[in-house]
Design brief:
Rossmann fold; alpha/beta; six-stranded parallel sheet; globular; 502 residues; eight-stranded mixed sheet
Length: 502
Amino acid sequence: MSGGLLVAGTTSDAGKSVVTAGICRWLSRKGVSVAPFKAQNMSLNSFVTREGAEIGRAQAMQAQAARVEPSALMNPVLLKPGGEKSSQVVLMGKPVGEMSARGYHGGRQQALLDTVVGCLQELRGTYDAVICEGAGSPAEINLRRTDIVNMGIARAARFPVVVVGDIDRGGVFASFFGTTALLSAADQELVAGYLVNKFRGDVSLLEPGLDMLHGLTGRRTYGVLPFQHGLGIDEEDGLRVSLRGAVRESVVAPPVGDDVLRVAVCAVPLMSNFTDVDALAAEPGVVVRFVDRAEELADADLVVVPGTRGTVRALAWLRERGLADALARRAAEGRPVLGICGGFQVLGEHIEDEVESRAGSVAGLGLLPVRVRFDREKTLARPVGEALGERVEGYEIHHGVAEVVGGEAFLDGCRVGEVWGTHWHGSLESDAFRRRFLTEVARAAGRRFVPAPDTSFAALREDQLDLLGDLIEEHADTDALLGLIENGTPTGLPFIAPGAPS
């Protein structure tokens, strides 16, 4: 096999990441050497590869689905929002500066297109197949001339395109038709057909509509994927994540001990890598919820202050909402608090920031003996160490440099009483360490909670990826998808007017 495919979507969150990962896992099962690719990703959830490059966590997850090591080639452009109108641009895994949306789309696209096409060509020379994920919708006609992630990369690579639509939102037939009709004739030539996602009910009731869609567009539907609960894959995110009331509950098994353990995660602005708490939610008897009010911390056994792309902004937000005072009361009472990356920084005594917020000197919450200075160089690392007598692996993504001036050492951060802080993302995925940490939390909280002795976060993640592969294998026309990947888009597909100018 040799070839590729672009998975586009009628909208953001249509299911492109899930479908891309599912196709990667399905092909890997067949013995195909496959790699994921997303030319440009906008996300605050990122990962550090072994060579020290920062890429989107969704592409790292897709690489795991493909059973290959993630690399910067798989996500050459990453945009990390830092405000309403600007983002940090990460090129080939390294930050190259802040840029407004207008500035980003205003003149660098040809150079970026050359870079992403070069990355794609290198992947095609290494793997049997490359499964590309688009971004947003290919029918964003206002951005088509500067597009490097949807039809721009499909045209450059001559890849067939399958458009995914979320039927759970409604209007999927109009979305499929409208998405295709808004494309230029040259772009429409590459659109092979459609994939329905998140369907609930009897597929036979949907089939007349699929037949009518085929009659209207000349393009077939390559599968109807059922709505699947419990897909705990790493997510992309937008500029703001609104998680009030969102709860991630362990569904693996009932608690081992007599009590559950309640974890409250402060939903700070520009929250990054909130996937850090997924390993906690995977533990039987641990309930994780995201909160934004001080009273929601009252019954929490552990409060997590997560990473953020806006440390000073998050600090102000905590103070405005009374969460800062609530955290101080918890620390004084000996009730557990964990700060990760930006959350670790806000727990310190002092922040000097002329880089991220340019706010200068700012007083921290003073819960940890730490002084933070923001450096223009970003720390990107994959540290390995020990804490609580157990081996720990993690990854670091931060501009803030922490000077620890007291307390007990903890994962290159520190601990004072029951307040813990570290720059290490992903540390809770180390099973033995997570169990020891939760045992400490339960002791301090006075809970009769016992961590399950055999929970493997890596195994649970593999189960999730296998579930994605099952969705493709059982509900998509895999023979037809193989034909697309190997042979490209069928010729002679009709043009649907009105098309947008190319």
